[in-house]
């Protein structure tokens, strides 16, 4: 029987991303979604899911308080926080109610291992948080998944026109993929199409990179709230180059 998952997040592109990941695994099933704290509580009590993927910055009631109340309403449900928040205090507090914490920028490669660990009764902590001293509720150091101590590196490029942007950015993506790095691209549809066409003309297997989740093209979101999320996703992904050389392109 598939593991039943409730996803709690108010950002629709993220929900679509989670669905696209989970549907590839036969032993996991997203049974429902919730976009705010009270809705999450209602659905958790009603559905009693095996696992909840829970954001922290929710409308009406934050994720940490939601987790506390879910413990009372659905005590057998495992809780895995999936958030862009990296504050040590917030992560510490989250781990008093949840069994794991995944930073969204790392979800493409960490979500499944985190889900497996949490369901097996273990703790999971994103690699980018490994430099923090995070204690579990018993005062023991929480296990981390750090793969290295590489320093973050930032690159900023400007382009005078669309054609130059597409060519230059496509070269950046190609270099990143060939080096084994992952790359997130926030761009308009026309720019994304142009970049993909350029990559294909250079012999880059774009489809394979997308399937392997090393190339993640995202729409530029509309609205102030979703723009702030995209801004955090891009900025924090650059800063999070600890486990591997992670480049993030923004167009």
CATH topology of the largest domain: Rossmann fold
What percent of the residues sit in helical stretches (DSSP H or I)? 40-55%
Major sheet: size, sense and barrel closure?
Answer: 6 strands, parallel
User: Mind telling me the CATH class of the largest domain?
Assistant: Alpha Beta
In N-to-C order, the SSE pattern is EHEHEHEHEHEHEHHEHE
Q: What is the CA–CA distance across the termini?
A: 42 Å
Radius of gyration: 19 Å
Could you characterize what this model shows?
By secondary structure, the protein is α/β, with parallel strands linked by helices. The protein has two domains: 3-129, Response regulator (Rossmann fold); 162-250. The protein has nine helices and nine strands. The relative contact order is 0.11.
Summary tags:
42% helix, disordered C terminus, 17% strand, single chain, 6-stranded parallel beta sheet, 251 residues
Give a short overview.
It is built from 9 helices and 9 strands. By secondary structure, it is an alpha/beta fold.
Topology record:
Layout: E1 3-8, H1 12-22, E2 28-34, H2 37-47, E3 51-54, H3 63-73, E4 78-83, H4 88-94, E5 100-103, H5 107-119, E6 124-125, H6 162-178, E7 183-187, H7 189-201, H8 206-211, E8 215-219, H9 224-239, E9 247-250
Parallel strand pairs: 1-2, 1-3, 3-4, 4-5, 5-6, 7-8, 7-9
Helix pairs in contact: 2-3, 6-7
